[in-house]
From TrEMBL:
One of its GO terms (cellular component) is membrane. The chain crosses the membrane at residues 12-36, 48-68, 80-99, 106-127, 257-281. It holds the Pfam family Bac_transf. Residues 255-435 form the Bacterial sugar transferase domain. It is found in: Membrane. The keyword Transferase applies. It is a multi-pass membrane protein. It comes from bioreactor metagenome. The keyword Transmembrane helix applies. GO terms for molecular function: phosphotransferase activity, for other substituted phosphate groups. This is Bacterial sugar transferase domain-containing protein. InterPro entries: Bact_transf (IPR003362), EPS_sugar_tfrase (IPR017475).
Amino acid sequence: MRDLKNYKGSVSIFITLTIITIQSLLFFLTWNLVYNDEMRYSPFYNKGLILLVLIYAIMYITFSNVYGGYKVGYLRVSDIIYSQIVSLVFVNIITYAQVSLMDRRLLNPLAFILMTIVQVFCTVIWAYTSNRFYFKVFPPINIAIVFGNKNVDSFIDKMGKRWDKYKICKTVDVGMGIEAVMAEIEGYDGVVIYDVESFTRNRILKECYKKSISVYMTPKISDIIIGSSDEVHLFDTPLFLSKNTGMSYEQKFLKRAIDIIASLVLIILTSPIMLLVAVSIKLYDKGPVLFKQNRLTIDNKIFEIYKFRSMIIEAEKDGIPLMASKDDDRITKIGKVIRKIRFDELPQLFNVLIGDMSLVGPRPERPEIASAYIEIIPEFEFRTKVKAGLTGYAQIMGKYNTRAYDKLKLDMMYIEKFSLLLDLKILLMTFKYLFTPSNEESTEGFDSSELSAEYECSVTKKD
């Protein structure tokens, strides 16, 4: 199987090109048979039609790449199908709006709707067929998990859910010693290094490199920081430069400009929705419409965050900060609805507009909860090297029950990888997850109930 691994890239390209060709061809046929003759001002023929199909294909490729619609062999089939459907809907709506503007009238959308239905049908067939073919050629790899001091059971449960990709054959306690560990993992396709201190982990990594064994490992905070370093060649000794200064002035300027423009546009577009929500909350129990609370943003500055109130009046009347749980009885009927579709977050657009927050960044945390986390995870304070965000990397990549330490790692990955393109990708991913049926699994922030010094310190000390 190791010989076949070298062909994974070629197989993935073939699978991707197949669906791109199918979807582009369906658009070409729809346009050529229906809309080209119907348009009054700008019919496309020959080179013009080729250009139009090319633009459609580029948009489709872009959206599908962002949403993971081509990740056969990586994502579950259901995730691939959903990503493809979201991509097709967005691209077809944009294309329909574009050609309607060009013709200065609303074209009949029926053909576009029928085309989308056929495209979805083709997507389902393609996804299942490609997935079966991929795993026929590349069956699940046999792996061994090398673990340290921390309980490995929950991690095994997570990996076990991806039985289509991994077959967990053995778990090895690193306490056995490096020689015994290497003897135990001999012959496996891959090794997962989980919660092993850096010195021992690096020895195992080098041995696996020598024997051409694939290695997966859970990163430490220091690994994430080093991963964003620049290569420096001032003389014949290689250097890694970790600047640790955050965003440049140009990045801050552009990010702030985008925040102002985008928040203004979104406030205008969502103002009818916000008005409807505000009236509904007021009529429900005559209480305040907005919920205000102190949160932390860049450089540990405290600001007042705005949300539509989704809980009963005086939900924290005893003064003890309590995070909302999944079935919290303090949440009102109106609150359940607006939380489900994330409309309770809309007032934070005003936080973005005035500069307290950014559209993208780590979710803002309460000062008291942040202080408690810093006591047991000192690196938690790194989250405020950038502005807090309306959405973030941890919210997109994490889930409702993601461990606090893993959420922190995801936030650090965003801070270290920051770029405007990454922000755009996160925003596009956010739109996808807003319409995901299981979006209640997405992660919100850090729960005070997760605080466990004994649990977290066992992880943190190794960093």
